[in-house]
Amino acid sequence: MHEENTAATNGCGKTRSSTQNEAALLALMEKTGYSMVQENGQRKFGGPPPGWEGPPPPRGCEVFVGKIPRDMYEDELVPIFERAGKIYEFRLMMEFSGENRGYAFVMYTAKEEAQLAIKILNNYEIRPGKFIGVCVSLDNCRLFIGAIPKEKKKQEILNEMKKVTEGVVDVIVYPNATDKTKNRGFAFVEYESHRAAAMARRRLIPGTFQLWGHTIQVDWADPEKEVDEETMQRVKVLYVRNLMLSTTEDTIKAEFNKFKPGVVERVKKLRDYAFVHFFNREDAVAAMSVMNGRCIDGASIEVTLAKPINKESTWKQHFNDQISPSSESLLGFPSKEDGHQKSAWKQANLSVRLNGQHSPSPPEVERCTYPFLPGTKLTPISMYSLKSSHFSSAVMHLDYFCYKNNWVPPEYYLYSTTSQDGKILLVYKVLVPSIAYGSQSYFMPDKLCTTLEDAKELAAQLTLLHLAPFPR
Fold it and tell me: Domain RRM spans what residues (predicted)?
């Protein structure tokens, strides 16, 4: 281990020299028997631990830790995280200065230990007034590829991606809602590992790479929120996609009741997907097996168990604002990207008061300013080249969301009325032209606002909640 000409403070506020830091880390290694190596901007403790035999722990055993004090190191962190179970590997991200970068990845030997770490250490006060964030870490193996010609079939896209990148496992392509013979203009490419996906992204990301003469868009796909097995065992709702726009809720209910009459409680259809609620879980599971791949009104449907989401937590966790195609509300979760964490870990009360009513608001972006030094080079960019975490308003999120789906931008129509005390009250109606049809052609809040900004923000929030089950 190399010395750094820096000093750090310990939990008591006393300055600790680099020599003392190294002594503390050596003492930790001697006590535990774990090895430690620093490379590529991170310091690995363990991986594997002493006496470990067999393959590394499976997916789901690693947690992400954010908001770590920059002068805190493994000698303090490891004992805290050992409270949840045996650590397989602890990876602390490091700066050249010798300070940590504020986050780490902790892999346990079992999923139960990782879940316990999240339960007991998320929002843990690690130092007076300093709270860390802990959540599940996902090794993302999937890329989002946009601007794909809509006439291309799955096999054509798969073959092309295998030609230009390595480690391709599968390609996920969704049919167009209005024309099932075409795709939606994007695909998800699954790779054999996070590394393979990262290498592919690095090759394709410059923005000049073309497929079939088209400049494609490349980004990390949003991994679906993982739901614990115990919760999934209680699910009795099916998510049905690839329906015809003309297919009605009554038709869906009748089709799913065919294999066993009277088992469907209700159906909620939105655009070309639906949620089918059953009275009993056993019937839901049986129906999923029977109905997956069946044709309804000429469309071959896909049927999976719907992942339950706590709607009260919508917008309240400051992770990336990502959307799962099998969830009834917005999701948020972090993902790992070349050793960087995409979320900012700023916990806050995210409800805003609009016209006397509390409404969910987008996560607050951690704002700060930097000096504009003479000679600073500026590069023109499009807002769509940014991550969704750069946007703090629902209006911007909705515009970004439509762009990512290759949709026409949303249209806002303003209406007003006068309150009993003479105030002008405002409300926006939002039309998303790319999905407009029948009774689902627009979205309008049931609350009026006193300011234009609040009215537009509230309308965008409502629209995002209704659009949640769509892919990115």
Answer: 61-139, 141-223, 236-308
